[in-house]
Amino acid sequence: MNTSNVDLHIIGGGIIGLAAAVTLQAQGVNVVLLEAEKIDQGASLGNAGHLATEQVFPIADASMLRHIPAMLFNPAGPLRLDWRYLPRLMPWALQLLMNMRPEPFERIHQAILSLNQGSIQAWQKFSNQWQLNEWVHVEGSLLAVEKPASLNNLKTHGARLNNMGVTNKLLTKEALLEREPALQDNQLGALFFPDTGHITNLKAVINQLSATFIQLGGHIIEHCRVLAVTPSADSIHLTTSQGDISASKVMLAAGAHSKVLAKQLTGVSVPLDTERGYHLMLPNESARLQIPVSSMDRRFIMTPMQGGLRLAGTVEYAGLEAPANMKRAQMLLQQAQPMLKAPLDTKDSVPWMGFRPSTADSLPVIDKIDRVFLNFGHQHLGLTQAVVSAQMIAEYYFDEPHAIDPTPYRLNRFKRASS
Ligand SMILES: Cc1cc2nc3c(=O)[nH]c(=O)nc-3n(C[C@H](O)[C@H](O)[C@H](O)COP(=O)(O)OP(=O)(O)OC[C@H]3O[C@@H](n4cnc5c(N)ncnc54)[C@H](O)[C@@H]3O)c2cc1C
After folding, report:
1. Residue 79 pLDDT greater than 80, yes or no
2. For a tag site, which of 13, 152, 162, 259 has the least CB within 10 Å?
3. What's the CA gap between 378 and 15, in Å, rounded?
4. Ligand 1 contact, 364 CB (< 6 A)
5. Which domains, ranges and CATH numbers included, belong to the chain?
6. Is any ligand 1 atom within 6 A of the Cβ of residue 36?
7. How large is the average pLDDT for residues 306-326?
């Protein structure tokens, strides 16, 4: 493969790789994107499409601990562990537990907040620039409750978020049902987050970004899996399923599959695992809701999209190799139906499973080390943070000052932890 005039090879064509590819190519960097499968697959296609800037706390929260046994033993619950995977998960899970202590929890929360704060504006600008406005909607989202005991938690949560600048408004049951008349009147109230958004067609966004990248002069090589990387003083040797490449610079954005390549590129073993998630797409239900509705009690989300209503959520610890358990996707129906007045049309529904790339501290790795750029591990928020992360990578690339303090996302936090 002749790649002598290429400035940067990006490994992974999900939303993280693609947003960075467009951002850099538009600034004159000659980029080649290497994608193991096809460009419009992976977590970036099947996620809930929620630009979830209001989610500013790590998923691993000490207050959750007492609920975990019940969740694990409830086959219809939001959390599932494949017990055969437990020995492999343990080192990651232990670090996750340690990060629930007050000091790391607060530090991680602040770092998520920093990334999320600029994410909506970044997406809006990106969307205007690259003609994505048809699909990128900033109309807000709702977090609803239906257990009377949850109403107080909702109020406290809303007040706490407002105090830190995550704007939200508490809606009474009446105001909620006025906004989303399809909801059942068992929904007792909700927080409305105006500065959040949703993407109504992820495939269209990915296709448009791919086409833009190519128009700008970038190259995409699909079905090109990077099997191994060997850095040397003046280049990085990539062994790929389509032959060898001598790369000048590399950005790793292989999502949940980044661990092995990150180790080969940097020598650091990042505590990266996957929190598998599911969705069920209901193609005849695209008009049921106006904006995404999450449930605090049921821990899942319903997002209206052009191709239907997407029910999404759940966390499953089972690694990258175990086959999908599509019952988990079907179970989302049992969560959604009681929240809605009229029966859902399930004809032609499509289940899906994908891999969230989750580090043990719930923060992505966004960094530059010599010729290597790292941009992976965005866990539950990769869509939300894709444009902001691309900007940070561009700042590293051009050696510009960072708009967001990059320290919490640097790789050396793990080096320190393991030394
Ligand atoms: C059910 C579910 C719901 C979600 N909902 C939301 C949401 O509403 N909002 C939000 O912000 N986030 C959400 N997320 C998280 C979000 O989808 C991810 O954080 C994001 O998609 C990660 O993007 P990525 O580009 O890093 O990874 P991916 O989309 O997985 O892309 C990585 C790409 O790298 C390729 N690759 C892997 N290994 C190699 C290799 N060796 N060589 C070449 N290519 C390789 C893969 O084929 C893949 O295409 C959700 C996730 C799930 C599973």
Report:
1. yes
2. 152
3. 11
4. no
5. 8-140+195-418 (3.50.50.60)
6. yes
7. 95
